[in-house]
Amino acid sequence: MAGLEVLYCSARAGISCPQDALVCGIHWELIQHGYRCLGAGEQPGPEERKSELLPAGWEANKEVYTLRYKSTDDARELLLKAIVVEDSMILNVMDRASQKVTDVTLAVADYINPEHLNDFHKVYKNMEELRTRIVSGIIAPLGVPTEKAKKESQAEKKDPDSPLDYNPRGIPPRHPAGARAPSWPSPLNPFAVGGQDLDPLGGRSGGMIVDPLRSGFPQPGIDPSTGLPSGLPPGAVPPGARFDPFGPLGAGRAGPDPDHLPPPGYDDMFM
């Protein structure tokens, strides 16, 4: 935890047992989450002010450590009591505004090396686990100060490792024109396999045979004057009226290539 080393060195003169070192680590975790220490004891003293340091006399009682904290936004005030019971420490924290209370029990030996109280780099162990216990057992139940939550929210927005689908401007993604999911035959009908190749004019999608009438190119509509030497005058056929053309369909409009899929040996003069 960044800053814990400086705190530990400043409080080193008062650290004489593993419980002192553990309280120091717990104190710094509360500081990291937007709280500042007001002082020791349940009652406020003269000229108190919020500080990141441990107050004078914080280690006077080795059986019950009592510290008071206030959030940086002044919205919450916590009363922390760390009670030593044999080899464990019970953290009892109360939010004085809401009277909400939470408890966490820690085994001192799980986080402190008692033989290295003089060496900060060796005195702590399993610090990530300790942080998780403090956050889940104290910070989360009582609520994160608003300033701390706001900073974390802003940090998430600036995080370059945010998910790839994050779109800060809310612009919908662009897709190529006409792109759509392929239409697959129903897996429940085994006879649908190859249906497009067996019936290329049946209106199904897919298949290897290309239908020139549905190749994607625009096709002209039916001309009623097909087969006449000259076209019908304008208005001779009302719009939308049913009308049989005079000549065969296809005359006068582009059709498929005569060489489209020719039969085998079509150019053999002896066939």
TrEMBL record:
Residues 165-248 form the PI31 proteasome regulator C-terminal domain. It is found in: Cytoplasm; Endoplasmic reticulum. GO terms for cellular component: cytosol; endoplasmic reticulum; perinuclear region of cytoplasm; proteasome complex. It comes from the Eukaryota. It holds the Pfam family PI31_Prot_C. Keywords: Acetylation, Cytoplasm, Endoplasmic reticulum, Methylation, Phosphoprotein, Proteasome. Residues 13-143 form the PI31 proteasome regulator N-terminal domain. Residues 145-271 are annotated as: Disordered. One of its GO terms (molecular function) is proteasome binding. GO terms for biological process: negative regulation of proteasomal protein catabolic process; proteasome-mediated ubiquitin-dependent protein catabolic process; ubiquitin-dependent protein catabolic process. Residues 147-161 have a biased composition (Basic and acidic residues). PANTHER family: PROTEASOME INHIBITOR, PROTEASOME INHIBITOR PI31 SUBUNIT. Plays an important role in control of proteasome function. Inhibits the hydrolysis of protein and peptide substrates by the 20S proteasome. Also inhibits the activation of the proteasome by the proteasome regulatory proteins PA700 and PA28. Belongs to the proteasome inhibitor PI31 family. This is Proteasome inhibitor PI31 subunit. It comes from Gallus gallus (Chicken).
